[in-house]
Amino acid sequence: MEELKDYSGKFVPNLRYEDLSKEVLAKLLKAYCKEMLVLDAYWQEQVRKRLGDEVVFECLLDNWTRVGKYEMGWAMEAANITGKDVEAYAKACQLIGSFAQDLYKYDFDLKNNNHGILTVHECPALTALEKRNPERIVQTCHVLELEGMKAYTAAVNPAIQVKPLKLAPRKSPDEVACQWEFKIET
């Protein structure tokens, strides 16, 4: 079967992802990433209505620190990333659904295999918090993100140290959302 550039034609009874073009697969992947993030936001909203902000935060912290080893592991396995250094962490971050390309605008400045700086220029979660819930910015950006990143780096190598360099709140949407340093002391 020739790769499908879209699926506007007839129904294909045994369609496989492998039947789709690279472009369609990339669009689907981005759609799945959005779905994952929207599902998380809707889940938070429902728990908040029923049980309050404190329970939402406790559950978020537990969920994001638990899922890191799986999300990183799946991405690393799929892309055959075998390293245990900051470079391997940076490569896996480029592929995970919760840090979706094009939804988040970021760059990773890899100084060497054991040292890198992640700068997040646009963060949809921060933008939403700034508009609707600015009182939750510090809890989310300073606590949840730090603990989540520690769990995600530990999935690659527990020796990777995470240090926030710049965190929200920010004075203007023109400022970077956040900046983080990742390092393995040698």
Summarize this structure briefly:
The chain is of the alpha+beta class and 186 residues long. It contains five helices and four strands; from the N terminus they run H-H-H-E-E-H-H-E-E. The chain is 51% helix and 15% strand.
What does this structure look like?
The chain is of the alpha+beta class. It has one domain (21-183): 2-Layer Sandwich (Muramoyl-pentapeptide Carboxypeptidase, domain 2), CATH 3.30.1380. It has five helices and four strands. The protein has helices at residues 22-51, 53-79, 86-93, 124-132, 137-156; strands spanning 105-112, 115-122, 161-166, 178-183. The chain has a four-stranded antiparallel β-sheet with strand order 1-2-4-3. A hairpin with a 2-residue loop joins β1 (105-112) and β2 (115-122). α1 runs antiparallel to α2 (53-79), α2 packs across α3 (86-93) and α2 packs parallel to α5 (137-156). The N and C termini lie far apart (51 Å). The mean pLDDT is 95.
Protein topology:
Layout: H1 22-51, H2 53-79, H3 86-93, E1 105-112, E2 115-122, H4 124-132, H5 137-156, E3 161-166, E4 178-183
Helix pairs in contact: 1-2, 2-3, 2-5
Number of strands: 4
Oligomeric form: single chain
| Number of helical stretches of at least 4 residues | 5
Strand content: 15-25%
Identify the strand order in the major beta sheet: 1-2-4-3
Count up the domains.
1
The level of helicity is: 40-55%
* Highest CATH level, the class: Alpha Beta
For the record, the CATH architecture stands as: 2-Layer Sandwich
Q: What is the straight-line distance between the termini? A: 51 Å
Derived structural class: alpha+beta
